[in-house]
Amino acid sequence: MITLLESRTVNKRFGGLQALTDVSLKIHRGEVYGLIGPNGAGKTTFFNVLTGAYPIDGGEFVMNGAELPVGKPHRIVAHGIARTFQNIRLFRELTALENVMAGHHIRTSAGVWGILAQSRAAREEERLVTERALEILDYVGIGRHADTVARNLSYGDQRRLEIARALATEPQLLALDEPAAGMNATETAGLRALIETIRADGVTVLLIEHDVKLIMGLCDRVAVLDFGKKIAEGTPAEVQRDPGVIRAYLGDHRAH
Amino acid sequence: METLLQQTLNGLVAGSIYALVALGYTMVYGILGLINFAHGEIVMVGALVALQTILFLSSAVPGLPPLVLLLAGVVVAVPACMALGYLIERIGYRRLRNAPRLAPLITAIGVSFLLQTLAMIIWGREFHVFPQLIDTAPMQPVAGVVVSPMQIFTIVVAFTLMGGLMLLVNKSRLGRAMRATAENHRVAGLMGINANGVIAATFIIGSGLAALAGVLFASNYAIAHYSMGFTPGLKAFTAAVLGGIGNLPGAMVGGLVLGLVESFGAGYIEHLSFGFLNSSYQDIFAFMILGAVLIFRPSGLLGERVADRA
Predict the structure, then answer these.
(1) Contacts of A83 in chain B (CB under 8 A)
(2) Domain boundaries in chain B?
(3) Residues ≥6 apart with Cβ < 8 Å to B298
(4) What are the tens digits of pLDDT across the range B87-127?
(5) Is residue A204 over pLDDT 60?
(6) B125: which of A15, A99, A140, B73 is 20 to 30 A away, CA to CA?
(7) In 3-state terms, chain B is what percent helix, strand and coil (to 5)?
(8) How far is the alpha carbon of A38 from chain B, nearest alpha carbon, in Å?
(9) Where do you find CATH 3.40.50.300 in chain A?
């Protein structure tokens, strides 16, 4: 097992609220790792600290053996981590294709002068980026909507477009924040197939999800957060039997 | 009829300069939601730096052709203003990125005063004559319309720059990053776009356009002084609002429309007011437009969704 991402005693406070307390976990290369827990347990906060959206108050993240930089979200993307959002945050006024191309920004380099002069290199790069973006749209299954403005896409397609935009950054770790939220059974089945494909293509997936069936069917390992602390980690079956987890989900009085 | 064509031409010349400056206002507003009131001063700095360069070169190397002098002025003024625009953003606005909206706005007004005062200290309070390196004397009239080479030069340069900017914004990697950052700079950062870099680039490009506008303005009116940025700045702001602030084609259309309205206003004001007012009152038209737009169509000619930005 090669460790791709390790969090070491990560802490995050919001004023007096301790949102994350000494969260340590290891995500192996090539697995689908689930992060579950009751509402307010700190799952999304973990994503936000990991991707640099919030400053970290203690601890560190280590990716491929190197500590991740703090305070510069775009540099964390350069290290190979990309995410989607619980509440969709596409570039609503850009087309689906442009959203994906924006995600590919960090992997390209054409400068201002090359564009203005329409140099051969700049045009060639632009052509390659367009081609690659179309491939990614096809890959997530919305290739036919390439020229649709993002806000006009259906809800399920917007979720797929978020995944496409994240994939365009060429991540090693794809962090999905409740990708199945609001989806019907058919859409969830399609999403599950997509995540399976992504894993098969060598991208490690970190997944926050409330849909227990999806977690159980998809994840290799699961960590459970409760009140900002990791209370269990293991295969889905192990975690499901863990008395601490049952207590966290169902409340103390049932366990007594 | 001849007056009509003549005033159209004059309006296009003034309007294309307004449009260049308006683009800087609208780009910064689009990406940060900030009205950068210091932008007009960049026009002034551009003109005065170009003037200084031209005066220095023409005394140091006598006999240089006028076009070379003008080009040298531009080559010095544009990077100088780009650096100035970058510094204003870096020092003045960046740390206020998450402050209440009023804070950067007041800062912008402060920066404007600062630049004017510095320019007054450096270049004095007097009006400088800006050398007319491209002929502003009219050529042979065509269909009764008098055109000078400088006017043609102004329109050609302005439209080329506007075309280049549209290409940059709509077709390039940087332009895509700018549009993504304008929608949400936090999400853009999380998607691998260096939002600070993109915002800096926006200020740099806008300031470069303003510097060129300053050189064109000073060349057309043969004058440069420390407070020359105020009126074109305010008019360009009006043009940006008229077109729909935050909207690039809007800034260009707004600038041209404003130039035309002023020009026609100046041409016909004596008839309209029965001889009571003359063409030196042309400035009132810009501000009548600003008032009317704000009352009747606050989102501007091409703008939309201003409400959810404000």
Answers:
(1) 190
(2) 13-229
(3) B306
(4) 999 999 999 988 998 999 999 999 999 999 999 999 999 99
(5) yes
(6) B73
(7) 75, 0, 25
(8) 25
(9) 3-80+171-254
pLDDT-based confidence at residue A111 (cuts at 50, 70, 90): low
CATH no., domain A3-80+171-254: 3.40.50.300
Q: Quickly count: other Cβ atoms within 10 Å of residue B133's Cβ.
A: 21
Instruction: Give the residues across from A5 on adjacent strands.
Output: A27, A63
- Using CB atoms within 10 Å of the CB of residue A29, give its burial: 0 to 12 exposed, 13 to 18 middle, 19+ buried: middle
Q: Check whether B45 has a pLDDT greater than 60.
A: yes
Tell me the mean pLDDT in the region A34-46.
91
Q: Which residues contact B132 (CB under 8 A, 6 or more apart)?
A: B150, B219, B222
Question: pLDDT (tens digit, 9 = 90+) per residue, B224-266?
Answer: 999 999 999 999 999 999 999 989 999 999 999 999 999 988 8
Res B310: pLDDT: 34
Contact A53 B177 (CB under 8 A): no
ipTM above threshold 0.95: no
Residue B187 and residue A98: Cβ atoms within 8 Å? no
How far is Cα of residue B284 from the mean position of the Cα atoms in its chain? Answer: 19
Of A85, A94, A105, the CB nearest to B192: A105
Whole-number Å distance between alpha carbons of B228 and B224:
6
Query: Distance of alpha carbon B267 from its chain centroid, rounded?
Result: 23
